[in-house]
Amino acid sequence: MNNSFIRSGGWNMNDRIKSITDAATYLFLQQGYSKTQISHIAKAVGVSVGTIYLDFAGKKEIMHFVLKCTIDPAFINQNFERPITDDLFVGLENDIIAVFEKTGSDFAKHLVNKAVDYDLETLVSDAFDILAQYAVGCLFIEKNQFDFKFLAEHYRAYRKKFLETMTQYLTAFVESGKVRPLEQLELTTTLIIEILSWWAMDIRYTSFETQDIPPELAKKICIDNIISAYKS
């Protein structure tokens, strides 16, 4: 297991919450939500099953906590009544969908003026940041789509919109001479997104051998190689 997921020793309550949710995140992404048991999470953290239940009412609450922190990283800094119950996460799925919609709209804003004030390097940087920021939530839905069909349906629509937006940007860049001519524009766009996704998301959480590469370094590698390959 990637050691960056686990903290140990001298915990206060929120340290333990962090350790539980980090371990659960790893397991939910590596082996799936349905196959992960509370006992697996307890073993990964190095505590008893009973200790987990002091902090969370059950596995569903841990999962909802992980997803909530994806869209609101500061959430974990609150003081929580133990055990954490699902009352804390009413409306969470709709909140996640709202984040999808807002992120998609914000990402497309430069298309209003045909991206004249935008360039390939900034596009790659912005796309990487979005993927890295929501990596856990996106990967969770991808890896558990049959267990969470409502979220998966909306996530597919978000992914489609993301691809369309990236394609429109690259089209504008080709037309303005910022990017070299591309024969298979949509497939090239898909390739770029897959490169960014792997470096922003998979390498940290779901690749065969996960690596704790700092996001800024991963982004620099992506920018250097994509710019070299496609800039006019």
Structure description:
With 232 residues, the chain is an all-alpha fold. It folds into two domains: 3-89, Orthogonal Bundle (Arc Repressor Mutant, subunit A), CATH 1.10.10.60; 92-230, Tetracycline Repressor, domain 2, CATH 1.10.357. Helices cover 65% and strands 0% of the residues. The chain contains ten helices and no strands. Helix 6 (120-133) crosses helix 9 and helix 8 (149-176) crosses helix 9 (185-205). The longest helix is centred in the last third of the chain and has 28 residues, at 149-176. The model is unreliable at 1-11 (pLDDT under 50).
Strand content: under 5%
Distance between the termini: 42 Å
CATH class of the largest domain: Mainly Alpha
Shape: elongated
**How many beta-strand segments?**
0
How many domains comprise the coordinates?
2
What's the rounded overall pLDDT mean? 94
Largest sheet: none
Rg over CA atoms: 19 Å
- Give the CATH topology of the largest domain: Tetracycline Repressor, domain 2
Order of helices and strands: HHHHHHHHHH
Query: Helix tally?
Result: 10
Low-pLDDT stretches? 1-11
The CATH architecture of the largest domain is Orthogonal Bundle
| Category from helices, strands and their pairing | mainly alpha
Secondary structure: helix percent: 55-70%
